[in-house]
Amino acid sequence: MDHQNLELIENIRQQFDNTPFPRIPLEQSPKDNSELLYLHNLVTAYYFRNRRVINTEGKVILDAGCGTGYKSLVLALANPGAKIVGIDLSEESVKLAEQRLQYHGVANAEFYALKIEELPSLGLQFDYINADEVLYLLPDAIAGLQAMKSVLATNGIIRTNLHSSNGRAGVFRAQAVFKAMGLMNGSPGELEIEIVRETMEALRDEIGLKAAGWNADRAQDEGWIMSNYLLVGDKGCSIPEVFAMLRGADLEFISMVAWRRWELMDLFKDPDDLPPFLAMSLPEASVEERLHLFDLLHPLHRLFDFWCGNPNRTQAFVPVAEWTQAQWREARVHLHPQLRTSQVREDLSNCIDSQTPFEISRYIIVPTLGPVAIDSTIAACLLPLWDGPQSAVSLVEKWLQIRSEQAVNLEPAVQETAFDEVKELLTRLELFLYLLLEC
């Protein structure tokens, strides 16, 4: 590594030694944050790729660039029985991460002050790697991806992200201003933070730089200023550059983590009535091309947050929407682990008692574009899932039992009709990975 890159890495290390990130209080727990746990549960990524439910017991999970350990704690809570390994360039951050997991009683965790490129020295293989908000800081992102691939289990999955040049354009312009002012030479600290604050607040509100990204409500948040306007090593890229990096590291793109929020057709007024050129070309576009066009048309996302893994390791499966009746009769239904809580079950029971719709998306909204509610009557057939996985047939029988009890006011349901109604419900909820179906 050349002298310039070595100096950059040292500046990054010093920055996070001086201002460890994230600045989340030691005692704060994510245990009730269903959405955060959903995103960091290996079950979610593995099911999305293979349509199979994996047991996290005994798995080994890496938090690369663990910082002060909050995401390490999330990973531990989201993946019961897994071993958590955290690495970070900053020794100070590693110490704080160790303290955090000890405070929350997580025993099966270990941390190292280590560069990502040095991962092979641990002699470990990982079933899941979380490299959150770190890859865009590396002088060579491909080398970082290659290092993670070298310690990834054959069927393992990496969740990582890179900054979008388009989605973060205002912040990058601000960084250029503060570089020109000399604030990002070396490792910025409290003095530089105060200069940024004073500079931005001195500008008129309509000035482009201020209007594009400054948030007056967060002006006193030093961590926010540091992780945006003074983030040493920060850089953006395009979707084609992301895919070029993956090819350079011999990794396969799986999906954006918030996959539903990258749907290109949602950008058009009427997806069924597109201009002729688009109507002919878009159906033939690759995943890379569609994501690139989305980012150009609507740079909504500051992060390209995605899953990737070793090439050609996706298990063959038939989409649930294409299952035969025979497959449905063999199907097992799992409730996503992050919905299987006593609070969610109690909320569902209350909706059933009051005969009001059950808004399941209130706990996990990220795979949707809006609220997802289900009729509380048929939702009652899902209650057994809080006790464990059930066969689709048993859920149909539960629904028949409920309908039979309501037969005073409703026509008795026949087996075939009940099966169709339950299938429709399960198919809809599987689309958002609220339910996980295997056959």
Mean pLDDT: 94
Characterize the biggest β-sheet: 8 strands, mixed
Radius of gyration: 24 Å
- DSSP summary: helix tally: 18
Q: Supply the helix-strand structural class.
A: alpha/beta
Distance between the termini: 50 Å
Please bin the fraction of helical residues.
Answer: 40-55%
Low-confidence stretches: none
Instruction: Give the tally of β-strands.
Output: 13
Shape estimate: globular
**Estimated share of beta-strand residues:** 5-15%
Q: Key terms for this structure?
A:
439 residues, three-stranded antiparallel β-sheet, alpha/beta, eight-stranded mixed β-sheet, 41% helix, 18 helices
How would you characterize the overall build of this protein?
This protein is of the alpha/beta class and 439 residues long. It has 18 helices and 13 strands. The chain has helices at 3-18, 34-39, 42-50, 70-78, 91-103, 141-150, 169-180, 190-202, 208-213, 222-228, 239-248, 276-281, 287-297, 325-330, 342-354, 376-379, 392-405, 415-431; strands at residues 60-64, 83-88, 109-113, 126-131, 152-164, 236-237, 252-256, 303-309, 332-335, 358-359, 373-374, 390-391, 435-438. Strands 1, 2, 3, 4, 5, 6, 7 and 8 form an 8-stranded mixed sheet that branches. Helix 17 crosses helix 18 (415-431). The longest helix has 17 residues, at 415-431. The model has no long low-confidence stretch (mean pLDDT 94).
What is this entry, summarized?
This protein is an alpha/beta fold.
